[in-house]
Amino acid sequence: MGSTESKAFTGMPIPGAASVLASLVIFYYEFWDGVPEKNIFVLLLTLCLALLMVSTLRFHGLKEIDFSKRKPFWILVAFVLFIAIMIIHPAIALFVFAMIYLAEGLLENMYLYYRRQKMSTSEVKK
User: Is the pLDDT of residue 8 over 70?
Assistant: First the structure.
């Protein structure tokens, strides 16, 4: 029996938004020896994340990964590199991976929006 449940999140998941903010604070603390005080970037990022959490944009989660199927060798290499980077530079890696997750979700949604607009304009011309 198949599931009709979507495997993608509608809006940015709360743990994803929290990890972006937490990794920013850890990254800032690692490089500038303290927490960010009265930093407008942190405030703007928090507001943007709050808007993304209540948006209708789709963000992917770990439920989409099927661990029961065979994977190509490059996935193992990428996973080992991920672990190595996390061990060597955890503050930088957490921040970079959190920002990649945020950027990937935004870029994918912009691409899907552009593709839908392009398809709707081509249907109107016919």
Answer: yes
8 Å CB contact between 98 and 23 = yes
The predicted structure's pLDDT at residue 48: 92
Q: Alpha-carbon distance 9 to 11, whole Å?
A: 6
Which amino acid is present at 117? Q
Above pLDDT 70, what percent of the chain?
84
- Torsion angle (degrees, nearest 10) of CA 26, 64, 60, 87: 20
Q: Which residues pair with 58 in a beta bridge?
A: 10
For every residue of 42-73, DSSP letters joined together read HHHHHHHHHHHHTSS-EEE-GGG--TTS---H
Please state at what angle helix 90-125 crosses helix 73-88, rounded to 10 degrees. 130
User: CA geometry: angle at 30 spanning 28 and 32, to 5°?
Assistant: 60
Q: Name the nearest CA neighbour of 36 among 54, 14, 56, 21.
A: 21
